[in-house]
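Hey L., structure's done. Input below.
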Amino acid sequence: MANGKPRVLILGGGFGGMYVALEFERALAQGANLDVTLVNRDNFFLFTPMLHEVAASDLDITNIVSPVRKLLRRVTFFHGEVESIDLVNKRVGLSHGHEEHCHSLPYDHLVLALGSTTNFFNLPGLAERAITMKSLDDAIFLRNRLIANLEEADFECSPSTRAPLLNFVVAGGGFAGVETIAGINDFLREAVRFYPHLREDMLRVILVHPGKTILPELGEKLGAYAQQKLVDRHVEIHSNCKVTAVTDRDLTLSDGTKVETNTLVWTAGTRPNSLLDTLPCRKERGRVLVNEYLEVPEWPGVWSLGDCAVVPDRKTGKSHPPTAQHALREGKVAAQNILATIQGGQKKPFLFSTLGLLAPIGKRSGVANILGVNFSGFIAWWLWRTIYLTKLPRFEKKLRVALDWTLDLLFSKDLVQFTNVRPSIVPQVEEEPVGQASPALVGAGISK
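Output:
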């Protein structure tokens, strides 16, 4: 304990970790006697369901992020990286700053909410060449790549040079892949009219999916509907297919197709954070096994949730899916159970059933299943925007996103390419006029 206060350390600021912290924020405001610290590599909370809208230029870059320090006033925030976790001695190694200063923080209760990382399945060259869709940097990088390719292709005379610039591939037919392909397809086909040497029929937008029908979580009927809509909008879909080889100029698919491209967006797999591999607790496919209270049974004071945990589901006898709607609710329950443990109260099990699943598929249409009822077309797209707008933290961000969406109805998408490389500056030495004293010499009382 620190100053007689139980120390709670939360690792990760995604949906799970942030909602643990927000629940403690409310408890502290009500007088709880705790020392709570949130550790995250970014100083903002990223609303990942809207990442594809940043990549497709539907939303301004900063409108889907909320500064942690504006969300949390009572919970301490540590902006840095988690380097190591010592469950035996109850300490966590951290680093931060440009020089990566090292710290070791003790805890009484530890919350593992580190999220997941991209799984490249050991395919040679994939990690170095693919664009992922996990972070704000990824979305900005993809947007820049789309615009840069259009700019370069507009002045390329050779078709063999132009083709790789106008072929775009997304691997993975789940929610992230379908939302990304739909967004960039709309963006590219709207943007190409501003490039005089390019035509829409020069674009080739490809979705690669290992299953029979995209969006398998929504069922075959809605998946088939979404697939047909994308095909109608000139998206080329390769079902029952995988990427088997990647080079700087092309990639090869398992159906024998070879595509010349410099843009491969990889959404085909995730894995739990690799730090979990170092922990001496029971795991399943890299995720920590927890009980119905979200605690790690063999390690008192350790809790896990979201992508980091296998959370048992009483109703199905299986485990809860690692989705955002589960993670944020797990975060609230974990915080309440930690408080109950500290204060001698009654812990409560995590009980929740998926309310619905939604996905936009471009051109103001979407697919959704809400409480078992299927929706498609405009109403599903409207539901997606309405529901996620209400989930976005902070009124300021809700207002900014609503304004962006309104302007998107009236104006074309922005084609500004953002560069994040500082230009090199070569200092120039100015020659002094003949007979004129140097200012430095004059200031020193010396003249020529």
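The chain has two domains: 7-41+80-118+271-343, 126-268+356-410. The two ends are 71 Å apart (CA to CA).

-- N.
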